[in-house]
Specification:
Strand order of the largest sheet: 2-1-6-5-4-3
Distance between the termini: 44 Å
Order of helices and strands: HHEEHEEEEH
Shape: globular
CATH class: Alpha Beta
Strand content: over 45%
Number of domains: 1
Number of helices: 4
CATH architecture: Roll
Length: 129
Amino acid sequence: MATSLETIRAVYAAFARGDIPAVLGALDASVKWTEAEGFPYGGTYSGPEAVLQNVFMKLGTEWEGFSAVPHDFVVDGDTVVALGTYGGKFKATGKRISVPFAHVWKLQNGKVRTFWQHTDTALVQKALR
């Protein structure tokens, strides 16, 4: 079985190449996925299908070239914190973002059980207006 860090690195790599089925495949059936309040998709979603519909489908249709690029990882057992930068252009306004993020991933039995997004939502909101 892959280490927690290897699993999360693979999730980011899959997202970067647009392989959403691989991203969803890393999620536990009862995953709790939390997008920051103030982010366009803020809230907590339960299960891979809810994450697909409420986060990934919207990122794919409302943004051009959306990316989440991790630069550093901090690992403590089955918890992985990824520090990185969001990029992309919001289609409705044509505005681009370059916004730092911290993602907290908790895994169990090799699957993502919880995800928490932390980001500067004020910077993201500027792109939406």
